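Q: Got a minute? One more chain.
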Amino acid sequence: MASNIEISPPQDKHGEQNLDKKTGPIALEVSNLSVVRSGKVIIHDINLKMKSGEFVGIVGPNGSGKSTLVLSILGFLKPQTGEIQIYGNAPLSKTLNGRIGWVSQAASNLPKEVTITVEELVMLGTVNSSNMLFWPNSDRKKRVKEAIEKVGLKEHSTTDVSKLSGGQRQRAVIAKALASNAEFIFLDEPLVGVDRKTRNSLLKLLDDLCHNENKTILMISHDLTAMRQTAHRIIYLEEEIKYDGPSSEFPNFAELAAIRGIQQVHDVNIGIKESDGVI
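A: Always. Here it is, folded:
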């Protein structure tokens, strides 16, 4: 799959992607963002831009600020300093209604007592303040049908979500975001709990959405290997951005350890014989 994925162009010294035919206008701009939670600095001085059609992966250890960054971008957390613009608007702006899709880590973990079919779940993605009191019209039904087909759940449209596999539930909540006609999709650990085959098909689906429909995707994941094979660009976050660039140039483990300030604790001479020419 990796050979079919085009890598975004290298960044310049300001962290901006060079323009080419594969990228669109600025979808997201974060400037000097810092967030404090419970008196502790979680992320500090974050600066990044994303263009329409990009697939960007955010990676980093537990507690590094990945979810805090995304929740701040979405407007759920208030920054201590900095500015966020999505399509030139502040987070939660009314002009962004329907343009943003958010798939949280817990989105597919519906309570067992909740009975809802795939079709009904996806239909919720079409609900907004102007239509919530009305029965779904033909346009909304069409969007639901198309979204379900895109994620490969056509044969399960009337199946109760609780009876789906973990990977199928992830597809269902992604379909819900697609049914809203969202242009910018945020995902938090969508690969957790899915098997290898499902993981690969999910990643291929996300890549297709970028290339074929110009969707913009920002995805949090602990699966660094998957991100290197799929995302156009990777951001390594650990309170601050330690790396932001093409997936193909992501640092190897030794380089990443140096970036993170992790030192070698083992004696490098252990296991090396005197006869090897090392004293």
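A: The CA atoms of residues 170 and 193 lie 10 Å apart.
Q: Perfect, thanks.
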